[in-house]
Amino acid sequence: MDPKIILETARNREEISAIEALLLLQEGPAILPSLFELADELTRRSHGTTVTYVRGKRIHYTNLCRAECSFCSFRRKKGQKNAFVLSPDEVVRQIRESGSARQVTLKGGLNPDLNLNYHLDVLRSVREEFPSIHVEAYSPSEIQFIARRARTSVGDVLRRFREAGMDSMTGDSADILNDKVRKKICPDKLRTNDWVDVVKTAHRLGIPTTAMILFGHVEDEINTCEHFEILRNIQKETGGFTAFEPVPFMPQGSPLAKAKKIKSPPPLESILRLVAISRLFFCRYIRNITVDWTKLGLAGAVEATRVGANDLGTLAVDSHEMRSPEVNGRLVMPAATVKSAVAKAGRETRERAPYDARTLPTIKTRKEELVLV
Ligand code: SF4
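Above: the input record for the complex with iron/sulfur cluster. Below: its predicted structure, written as tokens.
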């Protein structure tokens, strides 16, 4: 098929298929200028020239994890140096320290020592202390793990978490939604169908989520396009995704990087191509494409905003600096530097509100549904 026809289809805001997305992924570099130009045009139609971010804090409540994802350099085993579990008070203290965060993201490993009550205590403590902060919490794999540990359903856990203060869930742990690849890179995490079930359950309960892909490791282009299609099908059914984030694999001494001798993240050109194709593929369905400058580098993230991305995600921001939203904000950049880099790309930076259920008027909830996942 002529790739120009695929681009024309997308230009008319018609849906491109997974096969067409695959062809765009496999085309030679000659396609890139017109692909990038079109992705930019579609982004401008929806968002103008504004690039957004949200002031927030990301807190890992534990790094103890019984899973062994080969791409992960975060997890620790019991007794290992630097292993930790935060108490609910410590979580609250860290949010307080962040000053002006409008959103907190709570994430952690699959830690069998933390029961349902621990998580409810964390959520209630945060809600009590910060009544108006947006609480984005957990991933489908954590939710399934907590539910199994508590011998209850995913729906029950999500309902209780929502009552305790959770506003939205991360779309993490999607990684690559293909069970053969998952067996290689995250054999202990939930399977594709389970990820889909947890996400749909959350959406039906009125809990929006983000969506993501982890790319640039052992997956192939077919896996990528199948992953895209699974996400778009969910969105057509529930309308519960707020944003899509393509996350490049960062080797950082992970077991996978060592085993496969991967020394660096995917090249910027591949990252930009994926960002652009995701804008075309999700165009009418997922409004926001997020990129993280703490992973892509500032220049890479700014380039991404010219080829389909409209959002820089969560950043720890004060009047002078923008930092990585992690607990200790390791990556620091003067706010003026970020804003002027974005301005040089012909965009303006604007702080936004957290993505919540109100930003998704189309979410199809079935709050009273009996969920048996
Ligand atoms: S579930 Fe996997 S990615 Fe998450 S902390 Fe554990 S090992 Fe790391």
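Notes for the reader.
The chain has a mean pLDDT of 91.
Residues 65, 67-69, 72, 74-75, 109-110, 141, 186, 189 surround iron/sulfur cluster (CB under 6 Å).
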